[in-house]
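The freezer alarm interrupted the setup, so I double-checked each line after restarting. Inputs confirmed:
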Amino acid sequence: MTTPTLALEVLRAPRARPANTAYVISLVVLGVLTLAAIFAPWVAPYDPDQVDLGAVYASPSTAHWLGTDALGRDTLSRMIYGARTALLAPLIVVVASTIIGILLGLLAGWRGGWLDSVLGRIFDVVFAFPSLLIAIMAVALFGKGLVAPVIAMSIAYAPFVARLTRSLVASERSRPYVSAYRVQGFSGGWIATRRVLPNVTPIVGAQSTLNFGYVLAELAALSFLGLGVQAPTADWGAMINEAQAGLLGGHFLPAIVPAVAVVIAVVAVNVIGEELSDRIGGGSPA
Amino acid sequence: MTAARRVAGKLGGLLLTLFLASLLVFFSRFLVPGDPVSFLLRGRKPSPEAIAQVTAQYGLDLPPWQQYLNWLAGILHGDFGRSLQYRQDVTAVIGERLPVTLGLVVMAGLMIAVVGLVGGIVAALNRGRILDRSVLIGLTVLGAIPSFVGSIVLIAVFAVQLGWFPSFGSGDGGFLDTVYHLVLPSIALAVVFVVLVGKVTRSSMVDQLGREHVEVATSRGLGRATVVRRHVFRNAIGPILTVSGLLVAGLIVASSIVEAAFGLAGIGSLLVQSVDRLDFPVVQAIVLLVVFAFVVVNAIIDILEPWVDPRSAAGAGAR
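Predicted 3D structure, all chains:
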């Protein structure tokens, strides 16, 4: 019972049910996107910022698979480069908010008492600020770009993680194995970090992956609003922002391609996140 | 616990949350290193008048807690200070643009309620069947379409290609014309939120359908429709209301995306524009308004719940 379930073991565990096609497809899609992002300079057919005024709004062809935008830049290449910020920024937010949230949740759930009440009240206040609003506020304070929003959103998402961790830790605390360690003279801090933490981390981690899609969409929205990644940098949100004018003139591809990329990425990470939570058993400690 | 004491307790919690939120909104400015005058006047010529104006507005020569109290006292009188970009009172600037956002949020809210409830109920009554699965897949797909993606797809298809709806602005001010102009924007806004209401409706209904009291009602010879209406749906409302309350703030913030895409002059686009033009007093006011709307709506739902569902007043044990 006390053996910690590692996320990797769960991934490798023999399946109790038939392979989930959507999950496998999503893993492949996310894998391809990740590889494209990492190896963008080798994979992309063109330099994403290469202006070609002779090929403005070119239709899809063998030269430009997904056409070109208002400045004749290759849409496919820009989409591939855009995957970099689209995947890296949410990854940072999810990892940072999970670490902050687990630490705060462990503190609140293990200590209980006034500390728990104070932290709970602070979480309630943060919940009243939608994460996109916190990101916008961060830009208002510290200027445009992704650095301030990424830090702000790591803080905005932490209370969700903390609340789940807190409830898991609180129910874990009353289990017999904790009392057994106490009787043997182990310190509370040691039991909390070495024995309780490994038991709750996989569940919390799986739930956190579900935040990835939200963060990705919100950061893309921020760049779409012109507050995040700035044009002419190739970023999905910024690309849609730049392509808005052409949309009214009937040039759909430069806007639709990054939009579809956002949707595909969000669906893929959501399917993976839900499958992981199902396998690990979100909520009830195994 | 009596109803009066419960309501008083909730109101106390509400005021505390609002107070803490106001601290956060006000003192966030102090996180920025450097001189507050130059922060507030970024991108503007620091003329003596401008310096005098922000110094007076924020009382920058006073200690921080005194600045906060003055700011809070102003807000309680409906005075959010002066906008740096419009040289008008913030309250007037926001008031002008509030109707568009409210219209947008109300229309989107209605769409979310209708589609979410119908989808969730249909899925729950057909649970495990093809219809259930297709509704769930449909909801999941909708949930993956962020409002900016929805906006550009709707503009491309229904405004540019088919020409059925306008792609820009909120019309001439007449009621029907405004509604007509807000159709595409409110669909774009509603799409991503439908999944939450739909899924919670479905799971809440499924949960009730499996209960003994439903079997008892059915065995008493009540018709299927009556059982679903009186014994299943009524009991399933609680969680649906709670989730709907949580959507409020998200809807207002997401409306900034939709307003930007459709060129609507609401408070969402005002927020973005004010961030862009470094008009911090307006940003502060809108952030506070969104938080206020969120906290108040959720408190109302919280307080009303026992009337909708008397069991929740008796505590979780009665469920």
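Quick read of the result. The mean pLDDT of chain B is 85.
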